[in-house]
Design a protein that fits this description.
2 copies of one chain form a homodimer.
Chain A (H helix, E strand, L loop, with lengths): L2 H14 L14 E6 L6 H5 L6 E6 L6 H14 L3 E7 L9 H12 L13 H14 L9 E7 L4 E5 L2
Parallel strand pairs in A: 1-2, 1-3, 3-4
Antiparallel strand pairs in A: 4-5
Chain lengths: 164, 164
């Protein structure tokens, strides 16, 4: 049985007792979370999110890319969020490689060098600050007065705040 | 109290009983999920995910953008995932606007027209197929033989498969 089939079995159980079908589209707590895709980060549990509470944007690293700016622009302009929470974490995959080396590997395998940055970084807290500066520098995110950044510790479950 | 401060209170409770500090970096179930950022989508609960199980990539719409390709390339090449699960959903914010209108609004407010697509779409199932085709067309995602797409129904909690 594939993981996807296991997901469908779990979803059937979830839907059986589902009682949240009347939640509105705009996030109740008016916040957008930007976090790494890492499998150990279970955003709902570690932040205490209920269905309907917050937008959750995730990618490799939790870095603020143009696609995150797109998502934040839609989140704030069209769906009313006002706070942003950035979450990087310890033991991140992005700490284990350098862009140039992976680009060279990809080029060796495919013949094509990727036309995008891989976004590897050397320190999660420093990269949270980089992400904060990218938002500060973007004209497309209208509300910037409630942005906070954290490093999540996969070894003990704790969020630690990064002060810019 | 801000939503962010409430998250920190919830996180302190989560960390108190945390017993998952020894999970490895590669996802145990070797799958990457690509889902919309919508607040009503609680990926962990609706798929039955435990900490360590799966990469979770999310943006506005759950659309496959270049940043999702970047994340999938890292997920598969460096962290061993082999399945991809795409999740769009009913009552999505991306159904409520057109790119041109939002771009014009942003230009009116900021003086700048965004140099990226907003990625609005008219039908979630059709856009799941679009996302499948974008992955099929990308040279940077090496493993493409286990890609499945779904529309999540926010009104009843059910995933319904999209057959390409």
């Amino acid at each position: 049985m594939s993981a996807t089939d296991e997901f469908l079995t779990a979803n059937a159980r979830y839907a059986e007792s589902f009682d949240k079908g009347d939640k509105p589209m705009p996030p109740a707590r008016q916040v957008a979370v930007v976090a790494c895709m890492d499998a150990r980060i279970e955003t709902g549990r570690l932040l205490g999110l209920e269905e309907g509470d917050a937008h959750v944007i995730r990618n490799a690293g939790g870095v603020v890319t143009d696609d995150v700016i797109r998502s934040l622009a839609i989140s704030q302009r069209l769906l009313g969020t006002r706070e942003i929470v950035l979450i990087h974490h310890t033991d991140c995959g992005m700490l284990t490689f350098k862009d140039d080396a992976v680009k060279a590997d990809i080029e060796a395998d495919t013949g094509l060098r990727p036309p995008f940055a891989l976004e590897a970084f050397a320190d999660p807290a420093e990269d949270v600050k980089q992400s904060m500066r990218r938002i500060a520098n973007s004209p497309f995110v209208p509300h910037k007065d409630a942005i906070r950044g954290f490093v999540y510790h996969v070894e003990n479950g704790q969020l630690k705040e990064v002060h810019p």
